[in-house]
Amino acid sequence: MPERTMNLTERQQHILRLIVSDYIQQGEPIGSKRLVEQHRLPVSPATVRNEMAVLEEAGYLMQPHTSAGRVPTEEGYRYFVEKLMGETTLSPAEQLMIQHQFHQARLELDQWMRLSAAVLAHTTHSASLVTAPKVSRCELKHLELISIHDHVALLILVLKEGTIKQQILNLETPHTQDELRTLSHRLTDLWAGCGVNAIRATAATMTGLPAQVAAVVIETMQRLNARQLTDLYHDGLLHLLETELPQGEVLERIIRILEERTIVDQLVGQVLNRQGVQIIIGGEGRWEDLSQISVILSRYGVEDGASGALGVVGPLRMPYERAVSIVQYMSGLMSRLIGELYSP
After folding, report:
1. CATH code, residues 140-225
2. Taking the model in full, what pTM does it have?
3. Per residue in 21-67, pLDDT tens?
4. Quick one: which of 195, 160, 196 has its CA closest to 342?
5. Which CATH class is domain 10-84?
6. Distance from first CA to last CA of the chain, Å, rounded?
7. Could you give the dihedral angle defined by the CA atoms of residues 91, 96, 102 and 104, in that order, rounded to the nearest 10 degrees?
């Protein structure tokens, strides 16, 4: 494995950046003559070939065929991402278009997740993944009781993480809608922002319908707190069919990674404990199944509150600068939306 701390000269860095960028865009081995002509480099093709040979010996480039140009290795992509990649942002027009899509969507967490996955996949032409936000413990935002018949009511629970649960209650005595509305407001005022333990403590002295509602609320929140995994949304697998993958098994592994979730859950667990966009190239020596695959992920959500992860998965030949800018923007947008769910 090459030394990731190897010092490259300014010219070597420039040549490596051009080769990685051109190969990502064109998908063909990059030769010295074309590099000099296309970018009007102030050196000869022979000089560029010598520098390419140094980069190949260092492990950043490889020559797929004897007479072909060079292509980046996993380590070459990694060096590019860590040291050479520029920062880009989405254009105001793209930001406005994405905001408009979310403005049209209903105020539902499931809709946001599906739309996020679709936007990420469409704008990066890669496979996307989004995990629903999860909190360490559920907290109630508000509840509503709606009369269906004299002895039947619908209980709607809205949790701070955005989860909405509904359950039919069979009432021992008839209640009017006005009575149910009054009780809804009283219990919401009492329990808003509370977890299971706090609700259980206040419910100990309750009787009748309030006690019945409390029992359902406590059981529902306990069940949600016991969840280990959140829902995973993904999109864009068809985009990968249009990509020149280095080998057919790469697409199969990407599909398996998204379906089986073992690696995804490990990556998400890592991302949730870090700030900013995380780029995993070729498995980083930890995940063999990620060989020839790149993953760009970012945490989104509320600090010390509900949080999830979103990003894209694709081959090593991925437009990293654009993908990172889109993931960053979507992370910020989703964080603001989740923050609104947490607002009083």
Report:
1. 3.30.390
2. 0.72
3. 999 998 889 999 999 999 999 999 999 999 999 999 999 999 987 66
4. 160
5. mainly alpha
6. 53
7. -150
